[in-house]
Amino acid sequence: MIYQRSSQLFAEAEKVIPGGVNSPVRAFKAVGGTPIFVQRAQGAYLYDEDGNRLIDYINSWGPMILGHAYEPVVEAVTERAKLGTSFGMPTELETKIAALAVSMVPNIDKIRFVNSGTEACMSAIRLARGFTKRDKIIKFAGCYHGHSDSFLIAAGSGLSTFGVPNSPGVTEGTAKDTLLARYNDLENVSALIAANPNEIAAIIVEPVAGNMGCVPPLNGFLEGLRELCSANGILLIFDEVMTGFRLAAGGVQELFGIQADIVCFGKVIGGGLPVGAFAAREEIMNYLAPLGPVYQAGTLSGNPLAMAAGLAMLESLNNDRAVFQRLEEKTSYLEAGIRNVLTANSVVFTINRVGSMISVHFDAEPVVDFQSAAKGDNVTFKKFFHGLLNEGIYIAPSAYETWFITDALTYEDLDFTIQAIDKVSKTFK
Ligand SMILES: *Cc1c(COP(=O)(O)O)cnc(C)c1O
User: Fold this and answer.
1) Which amino acid residue places its CA nearest to atom 15 of ligand 1?
2) Distance CA 99, CA 307 (A)
3) Domain boundary at 293, 319, 345, which?
4) CA–CA separation, 43 and 63 (whole Å)
5) Is residue 146 in contact with ligand 1, taking CB distance under 6 Å?
6) Is the CB of 211 under 6 A from ligand 1?
7) List-wise, which residues carry N6-(pyridoxal phosphate)lysine (predicted)?
C-alpha cells in the first residue's frame, strides 16, 4: 500500500502540532513508520488520504460500535446543528439522554455530562473525595483513567506505599495521594488499605481492563473490591469509559452483577462526539454543585451536538439489545479464527477477550496484570501491525491496546482478517 500523501501530511503536521498529533498514541512511536491520515470512514472501513481502504479494528478507540458515519447519529447531529451549536443554557435533550442512560445502567440515579473520559474520571474522584472527606485513592498499574494529574502516577519504590509522578508536571504532592496496586491482586489492595486506615476515598478500576490489552478481572476480583470498599467506607469507582454501553447495555455492573458506587463513561456514550459522564446514586450525586459543595462545571458540557449524537447512539443500542450478542458472536468467531492460524503457524501467543474487546499478546503466559502484559514480544507485534496494515487492516499502533469490534463488520471482513493474519504470521520467523 502507498502512504505518500499521509507521509506528506504528517510532515506538515509536525511543523505546527507537537509530534504531528493531538494524542500521543496516534504517532506510531511504538511501531515505527508514519501515521495514516484519514479522509473519511463508512461502516467498518477507513479511507485514507492515499485512497487506501482499511478494515478498522480501533473504531475511534471504541465509540463507533455501530460503525462509522452511522446514519441515525449523522442525521441527529446534522439536524441539531441547524438549531444552533451551543448555548450554555439547559436543553431538553440533556434530560432525555440522562434519563435513558439512567434507565439502561443499573444502580445509578443521576448522571452528569462532561466532555471527555478524562474529565469524567477526574470529576469522579473529586466527588468521591468530597463525599468521604478523605484524600487518597487507589488505582491499578496498567489501568488508564485519562491524563489528569492524579492518574499519571507510577508505583513508588518497594518500601513506599506512595505513588510517584509518571510525567514531569505532576507534583509529588499530588502523587502521594494516589496509591498503586496490582490488577487482579486483592491481597495487595488489602495491604494498601490496612497501611492507610480511614484515608482512602475511592478505589478506581477498569472493571474489564482495556488499556494494557484486554485484561479480564479474575474470578472474585471485582467482588473482593466491592467487599473491601463496603467494609472500609471506600467508594468503588468503575471506570466504564471503555466498557460502558459496549459489553452490555448496563456495562460491567450488569455483565458481572457487581455494584459500583460511581461509574464513569466516555467513548460509546458520545456516539463519536466528545462526551464523558459520571453517575451514581442520588445521595452521592447530590454532593455536586449547585446542590452540594463539590464544584464541577463546563462551558460545553451537555453540548447539543454531542448530546444529540449520544442520544441517537444510546437509543440505537437500547432498541436493539441483540447487538451485544451479535458483537459477542462476531468477536468470538474472530478469536477462534486467529487462534487457529497462529497455532498452525507455531506462533507463541495469548488472546484475551471479553465480549467485543479482544487483544493478541505475543507471549505464552496468561496476561492478568500490567507486568504480564508488558512481557509481550514487541518485535513480533511490530511485524504483526505493519503486516496487517499492508493487507488493509488497521489495528491499534501499540501492543498495549485492545481491538474494538464494531457491528458493522461482516463475516466476510472477519474471514479476510483471519486470512491476512495467517499470511502475516507466516513471516514472523
Ligand atoms: C479512553 C479512556 C479514558 C479517557 O477518556 P478520554 O476521552 O480519552 O479522555 C479513561 N478511562 C478509560 C478506561 C479509557 O479507556
Assistant:
1) 242
2) 12
3) 319
4) 13
5) yes
6) yes
7) 267
For the chain, which residues score pLDDT lower than 50? none
Closest CA to 217 of 197, 243, 194: 243
How distant, in Å, are the alpha carbons of 79, 114, 310 from that of 280? 31, 15, 19
The reply to whether ligand 1 has any atom less than 6 angstroms from the CB of 261 is no
> From the CA of 142, how far away is ligand 1's center (Å)?
13
Domain end among 319, 350, 376: 319
* Per-residue pLDDT reduced to its tens digit, 269-304: 999 999 999 999 999 999 999 999 999 999 999 999
The pLDDT value recorded for residue 212 is 94
Are 146 and 279 in a shared domain?
A: yes
Residue numbers annotated as active site: 144, 239, 267
Q: How far is the CA of 273 from the centre of ligand 1 (A)?
A: 13
Domain co-membership, 370 together with 311: no
How far does residue 62's CA lie from ligand 1's centre (Å)? 10
What pLDDT, on the 0 to 100 scale, is given for residue 383?
Answer: 96
Query: At which residue does the C-alpha cell 437500547 appear?
Result: 318
